[in-house]
């Protein structure tokens, strides 16, 4: 299966969360729409990641689609750990629904209510239903994809 997965080059996302007076966020490579009716989206967070620890008690998550010109933002949320760095002090954001940190300037974002958690191994799936969101007007900006971020070393341990 790994040779199959190695051929995929899908968009990457930044997921942000606010719960219990904490904020967290991370770069996510496992995410997908998973239902049309009702509309649902699943994001998987590593159980080793601080964002997962904060998200466990959250009612909502925000999912951001980055543009290819936002590699530095991907590096901040993927290459640093919130255990050592306040990522939100290093980037522009605004409070969104339920106090979620919404990153400025992304191609699109949505806030999703957590409908369920799914244990899939070393990542836990968060099943989301959209409660709010925003998409930029169509531009020539292309989404940041997995192949664009292979140079980023994870800020938290992989295993």
UniProtKB/TrEMBL annotation:
UniProt keyword Oxidoreductase present: yes
InterPro entries: Flavin_Rdtase-like_dom (IPR002563), NADH-dep_flavin_reductase (IPR050268), Split_barrel_FMN-bd (IPR012349)
Domain Flavin reductase like: residue ranges: 5-142
Pfam families, per the entry: Flavin_Reduct
Protein's UniProt keywords contain Oxidoreductase: yes
Coiled coil: none
Keywords: Oxidoreductase
Superkingdom in the source lineage: Bacteria
PANTHER family (alphabetical): FLAVIN REDUCTASE, POSSIBLE OXIDOREDUCTASE
The protein, known as: Flavin reductase
Species of origin: Streptomyces ureilyticus
